[in-house]
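Entry 14. Ran structure prediction on the chain below.
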Amino acid sequence: MMSPWSLKRPRLEAMRNLTQYVQTSVAAAVCGVVILWLAGHALADETLPPEPGPFERLLNEQHLVQPGIVSLGDLPPSDYRLPGDFEPLLAIILAGDRLAAQHPEVLQAILGQLPDNVKAYLLVDQSSPSAPLRRIIRNVQLPTERLRFIECPTDTIWIRDFGPAFVANPHGRLVAVDAEYQRRSEGKRLRTNDNRAAAAIARDLDVPLRKLPLILDGGNVLSNGRGLLVTTTASINRNIAGGVKPQTIYRLLRDHFGVEQLVLLEPLGGEITGHVDMFACFTDPQTIVVGQYAEDDDSINRLVLQRNVALLRKVRTGQGVLRVVPIAMPQNDGGIWRTFTNAVFANDILLMPNYSGTVPDVQRQTTQTFAELMPKRKIVGQPVDRLIKDEGALRCITLGLPRVSSAD
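Output, structure tokens:
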């Protein structure tokens, strides 16, 4: 005769197995949630989103965009206009204390080359500038009436990305646009000071601030000042990967920047930022300069840039066909992504990056091309060999404050 314990044992084994199954399922579900959470945060911190997880692929991959031209003219009109880099400036804004500590030679060269009709607004960690920054100001003999210090601690020097974009309204007033900024420094520390800088700058300048609920680095925004905005697919797909629909992105760009036509180019393969200003810049509303690699320098990105040129040549504006001017791209050997187009427009001058390892004839030819496109500007070559190793050049560390009028 079987004991009562023998009769209960199968039931107990079944209950134990069920409990283990439930525990395993719950643990797997929790792990899945954690993985998705981590993936979501990783997407927010990378310019080019990594491979999405299985659930994200189902939800978001269908919306990722390809290179192309998008017309936004059917969306509700905007009262704002995003000026081009080439337009008149009131001032250039730089992370003064941070640059003085990390790249004093570049900061001194920029301040020393600024024309008299461009002021220098310098971000400082405290109410007064640091000793290295004061020394640079003395060296270039910059008059006090052309200086302004903005108390605004920063984590990095990349003000083009974390600073505000300045747009003009119809009344001749500037408005600052503050996009989301979620980059991390080495060690994965969030750049919280950089993220707060746009609001601090707008407050100091007494400029209205509009929040833009998109992740959008300033280095991936080029405007012709007439409603044409050029970026790379990296900027759009980064937001799509985070769950923002393409039509929402287009509506926000139209509303905040007055974009009528959006051109999505391919980013350079292997270049970490994915930014368009690493290979292109507008020189006037109807002309864009685009870098081109020699075949023996980078055969893959040579094709990328050729496709970008072909796409840009299909763009039509109110003034006709967009003029696309190819220039040579300096070599990117050693993982250093040199660029000529990451330049600073400052009214009467153009500060163009130069590199000691670049063939002199290539730099002379590029300088001549810029001079022919902008005969009223002085083209000044600025060595940035040390700066470019930090994955940025002159445009990356500067932010123009446009001089607008009621005509805008």
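The first strand starts at residue 68 and ends at 71. Will compare against last week's run tomorrow.
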